[in-house]
C-alpha cells in the first residue's frame, strides 16, 4: 500500500462522518432521530436502499460468481424489479396510510400488539445474526488486503474501528445521517467498480466480446442444475427473486424504514423502483468486472488461476494490480459497503425496538431518567455492542456457522411475508389463528435450513422463503379447520 492509498482511505474516514452530519443537521427528538423529519428526497432514499441491501459481500462475491457463471446476478435483478413493483403497488399504500415507525405497526393494527411484537422480535433476532455475519465476513476481505499490503490489524481492532466510525455519525445524525452517508458510500463503490471495469476493458485483447459470448459469460441464468439448489435458474431468479424482493422490501424493517421516511406515497414509490434500477446497475457493473477478470486470467478456472474460492478473485486484483490511489479508493469502497449496511441495521433495529415495544421502553427510559432521544441512542449502543459480540463469536466458528448465519434471515422472510399477505387477503383472519402458526413456522424453517438438502445440497435461499410461506399458510389452514371442528 502506497502513501496515496493510505491518504485516500484516511480522507474517506475523515470526510464521510463530517459530510453526513453536515447534511443531516442536528437531531433534537427521538422522532427526528428515527424518522428523519419525513423530508428526505426520494433519490437519496433510493441510493440508501441500494447501499443497505448491498454489503462488502456483494462487492466481493458478485465478481467471483460472474468469473465462473457469467451475468447471473443481472438475471436475479429482473426478479427484484418485479417484486418491488408489487411492493410499490400493494404494500406502500398501507404504510403511507398512517403514522408508522416500523413495518410491524400494520400487523399490530390488524392483529394486535402481541402479533406486532412477535414479528418485530423475529426481525431483531434474525437481523442481529445476519448482520453480525455480514460484519465479520465483510471484514475478512479488508483484513486480507491490508495483510497483503503489510498493514495487517487484529480482527478485533478492525471490528471495533469500523463500529466506532459508524456509531459516530449514526448516534449524532440519526436516520438522516444514515441515508446521506449511504448515498455517498454507494456513489463511492459504484465509481470504484466502474473504474475497475474500465481498466480491465482497456487491457482486454481484441475480440473480447466474441470470446465472452462464445463462453456463455453473458448468460443471465444457470441451466442444467438440480432443482431447488440454485438461486440462478430462470424459475429461481424470476419467481424466487420476486418473492425475495417482496419479502425484503415489503416486510423487513431494514428496508421499510427508508420508504416510511419519504415525503409522500409518490416519493416512496420512486425511491423503491429506483433502487431496483440501482441494484441492477451495480450487479451489471460487478458482473462485468467478474467476466473481464476471467478474460484477464486467460479463461482459467478458479483452481487453475490459484484461487481457493470465488471470493478471492476481486480482492486479489484490488490488492495486486490496481494503480496507486485507485487501490486506496477501492479499499475505501469495501469499507463503505460494510459501514453502509451496518449503520442502516443499527437505525432499523433501534426504530423497531422503540416503536414495537413502546410501553416497556417508556418504563425503562423513566427508570433511567432519559429523554426519548437519549433512550433511543442508548438502544443504538446496545445493538452495536450485540453486533460486535456476535461477530466475534462467528470468528471462532467454522465456515458452516457463517453460512448458517447468512441463511437464517431467510427463515423469517417466508412466514413474515405470508402473515402480511394473509392479513390483506383474509379479512376474517384473527390473531388467535395466525400467531400460533407464525410461532411454529419459525423453528420449522430453521430445521428446514439445517436438514433439508435436496440432491445433497442445501435448499437455495429463495426456495427457503417460498417454503416458509407455504408452511405458514398450511398451518393457518390447519388451525382454522381444527378450530371450526371444535365449535361443532
Automatic annotation (TrEMBL):
<feature type="transmembrane region" description="Helical">
    <location>
        <begin position="228"/>
        <end position="249"/>
    </location>
</feature>
<dbReference type="InterPro" id="IPR051163">
    <property type="entry name" value="Sodium:Solute_Symporter_SSF"/>
</dbReference>
<comment type="similarity">
    <text>Belongs to the sodium:solute symporter (SSF) (TC 2.A.21) family.</text>
</comment>
<feature type="transmembrane region" description="Helical">
    <location>
        <begin position="270"/>
        <end position="295"/>
    </location>
</feature>
<keyword id="KW-0813">Transport</keyword>
<feature type="transmembrane region" description="Helical">
    <location>
        <begin position="433"/>
        <end position="453"/>
    </location>
</feature>
<dbReference type="InterPro" id="IPR038377">
    <property type="entry name" value="Na/Glc_symporter_sf"/>
</dbReference>
<feature type="transmembrane region" description="Helical">
    <location>
        <begin position="329"/>
        <end position="354"/>
    </location>
</feature>
<feature type="transmembrane region" description="Helical">
    <location>
        <begin position="459"/>
        <end position="482"/>
    </location>
</feature>
<feature type="transmembrane region" description="Helical">
    <location>
        <begin position="401"/>
        <end position="426"/>
    </location>
</feature>
<dbReference type="InterPro" id="IPR001734">
    <property type="entry name" value="Na/solute_symporter"/>
</dbReference>
<dbReference type="GO" id="GO:0005886">
    <property type="term" value="C:plasma membrane"/>
</dbReference>
<keyword id="KW-1133">Transmembrane helix</keyword>
<protein>
    <submittedName>
        <fullName>Sodium:proline symporter</fullName>
    </submittedName>
</protein>
<keyword id="KW-0739">Sodium transport</keyword>
<feature type="transmembrane region" description="Helical">
    <location>
        <begin position="56"/>
        <end position="82"/>
    </location>
</feature>
<dbReference type="Pfam" id="PF00474">
    <property type="entry name" value="SSF"/>
</dbReference>
<dbReference type="GO" id="GO:0015293">
    <property type="term" value="F:symporter activity"/>
</dbReference>
<keyword id="KW-0472">Membrane</keyword>
<keyword id="KW-0915">Sodium</keyword>
<keyword id="KW-0812">Transmembrane</keyword>
<feature type="transmembrane region" description="Helical">
    <location>
        <begin position="124"/>
        <end position="144"/>
    </location>
</feature>
<keyword id="KW-1003">Cell membrane</keyword>
<keyword id="KW-0406">Ion transport</keyword>
<dbReference type="GO" id="GO:0006814">
    <property type="term" value="P:sodium ion transport"/>
</dbReference>
<feature type="transmembrane region" description="Helical">
    <location>
        <begin position="375"/>
        <end position="395"/>
    </location>
</feature>
<feature type="transmembrane region" description="Helical">
    <location>
        <begin position="186"/>
        <end position="208"/>
    </location>
</feature>
<feature type="transmembrane region" description="Helical">
    <location>
        <begin position="156"/>
        <end position="179"/>
    </location>
</feature>
Amino acid at each position: 500500500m502506497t502513501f496515496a492509498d493510505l491518504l485516500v482511505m484516511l480522507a474517506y474516514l475523515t470526510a464521510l462522518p463530517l459530510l453526513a452530519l453536515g447534511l443531516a443537521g442536528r437531531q433534537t427528538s427521538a422522532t427526528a432521530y428515527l424518522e428523519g423529519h419525513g423530508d428526505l428526497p426520494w433519490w437519496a432514499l433510493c441510493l440508501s436502499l441500494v447501499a443497505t441491501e448491498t454489503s462488502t459481500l456483494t462487492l466481493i462475491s458478485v465478481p467471483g460468481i460472474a468469473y465462473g457463471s457469467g451475468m447471473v446476478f443481472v438475471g436475479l435483478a429482473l426478479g427484484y424489479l418485479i417484486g418491488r413493483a408489487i411492493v410499490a403497488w400493494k404494500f406502500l399504500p398501507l404504510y403511507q396510510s398512517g403514522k408508522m415507525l416500523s413495518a410491524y405497526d400494520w400487523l399490530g393494527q390488524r392483529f394486535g400488539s402481541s402479533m406486532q411484537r412477535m414479528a418485530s422480535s423475529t426481525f431483531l433476532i434474525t437481523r442481529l445474526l445476519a448482520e453480525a455475519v455480514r460484519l465479520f465476513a465483510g471484514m475478512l476481505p479488508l483484513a486480507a488486503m491490508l495483510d497483503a499490503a503489510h498493514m495487517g490489524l487484529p480482527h478485533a481492532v478492525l471490528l471495533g474501528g469500523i463500529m466506532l466510525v459508524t456509531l459516530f455519525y449514526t448516534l449524532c445524525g440519526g436516520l438522516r445521517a444514515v441515508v446521506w452517508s449511504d448515498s455517498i458510500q454507494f456513489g463511492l463503490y459504484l465509481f470504484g467498480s466502474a473504474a475497475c471495469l474500465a481498466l480491465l476493458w482497456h487491457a482486454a485483447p481484441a475480440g473480447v466480446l466474441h470470446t465472452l459470448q462464445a463462453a456463455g459469460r453473458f448468460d443471465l441464468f444457470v441451466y442444467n442444475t438440480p432443482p431447488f439448489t440454485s438461486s440462478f435458474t430462470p424459475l429461481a431468479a424470476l419467481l424466487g427473486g420476486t418473492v425475495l424482493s417482496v419479502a425484503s422490501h415489503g416486510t423487513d424493517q431494514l428496508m421499510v424504514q427508508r420508504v416510511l421516511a419519504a415525503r409522500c406515497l409518490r416519493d416512496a414509490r420512486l425511491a423503491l423502483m429506483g433502487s431496483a434500477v440501482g441494484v441492477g446497475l451495480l450487479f451489471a457493473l460487478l458482473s462485468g468486472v467478474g467476466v473481464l477478470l476471467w478474460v484477464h486470467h486467460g479463461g482459467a478456472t478458479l483452481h487453475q488461476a490459484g484461487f481457493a474460492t470465488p471470493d478471492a478473485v476481486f480482492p486479489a486484483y484490488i490488492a495486486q494490480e490496481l494503480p496507486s490511489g485507485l487501490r486506496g479508493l477501492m479499499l475505501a469502497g469495501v469499507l463503505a459497503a460494510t459501514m453502509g449496511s451496518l449503520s442502516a441495521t443499527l437505525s432499523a433495529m433501534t426504530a423497531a425496538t422503540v416503536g414495537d415495544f413502546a410501553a416497556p421502553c417508556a418504563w425503562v427510559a423513566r427508570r433511567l431518567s432519559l429523554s426519548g432521544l437519549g433512550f433511543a441512542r442508548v438502544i443504538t449502543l446496545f445493538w452495536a455492542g450485540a453486533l460486535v459480540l456476535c461477530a466475534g463469536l462467528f470468528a471462532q466458528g467454522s465456515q458452516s456457522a457463517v453460512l448458517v448465519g447468512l441463511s437464517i434471515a431467510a427463515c423469517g422472510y417466508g412466514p413474515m411475508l405470508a402473515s402480511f399477505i394473509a392479513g390483506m387477503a383474509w379479512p376474517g383472519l384473527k390473531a388467535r389463528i395466525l400467531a400460533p402458526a407464525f410461532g411454529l413456522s419459525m423453528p420449522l424453517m430453521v430445521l428446514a435450513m439445517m436438514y433439508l438438502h435436496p440432491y445433497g445440497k442445501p435448499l437455495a435461499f429463495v426456495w427457503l422463503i417460498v417454503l416458509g410461506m407455504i408452511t405458514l399458510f398450511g398451518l393457518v389452514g390447519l388451525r382454522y379447520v381444527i378450530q371450526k371442528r371444535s365449535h361443532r
